[in-house]
Amino acid sequence: RWDNSAMSITYNDAEGIAAMRVAGRLGSEVLDYLTPFIQPGITTNEIDRLAAEYMVEQGTTSATVGYMGASSVPFPKSLCTSVNHVVCHGIPNDKPLKKGDVMNIDVTVVKDGWFGDNSRMFVIGDASIAARRLCALTYEAMWHGILQVRPGAHLGDVGHAIQKFAEGHGFSVVREFCGHGVGRHFHEDPQVLHYGRPGTLEELKPGMIFTIEPMINAGKRDIKEDARGGQYDGWTIVTRDHSLSAQWEHSVLVTETGYEVLTLSAASPAPPPFVTATKT
Ligand code: MF3
Ligand code: CO
Ligand code: CO
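A: This is the predicted complex of the input protein with cobalt (II) ion.
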């Protein structure tokens, strides 16, 4: 859990859904805006600055600046940048990106009190075939999860689809972090595990909105807090074996008949070929 407050699942009405469509699109547009800047030599702090300025133009705020979650240290930046073996919650810094790096940028905006949470992988210059494959297959893993979303399905179906696909390709699924309900709060119930058994856990019902955000490792699934230079920053999570890790994230609505991906915009990466619709 991200905090200790009691929470229950929200079933959004038409007004909430409309607001979440806007927040989701705006969150995605931050990633669209950043994309052309993601080149060898740029620092993650420069990316953070660009995003912060863009959010002002959008009339959004960042959900991550000052966010505490379960940490004892407030998150200091407007987005998370998780490079190579960093699994999640990387803090932007002054180190330039270099050719061959892969990086997740995770953006959560707040618009009129509603949260739009999404992330994408970026490949810097030409990365290795192994690195590009991990990014591409993690994207497919997320979509396999999304395709399970419909009323009557269970969260275990979502987790199982992701786990089966990722492990089938020889990768591993991080267990300690999960997707989450999202709406008027950053992290709501339910927890959305990226592994599991079909037919288990919460039944999906129309109006639910949650993220699907698998963290997939090229090596073993074990993670640890980063302690570079003998110092913990309170946030950065890395793979224990220092293998590469990838993550993608969408916020998804359960519709009357299936799913609707909310975190889409003009420059969103196309879904994989096996996906026929972003809304069903
Ligand atoms: N956006 C992340 C998520 O998908 C959470 C980041 S919290 C932060 O849930 F504090 F690390 F930014
Ligand atoms: Co996120
Ligand atoms: Co999230």
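The first strand starts at residue 61 and ends at 62. Helices lie at 14-34, 44-58, 129-146, 155-168.
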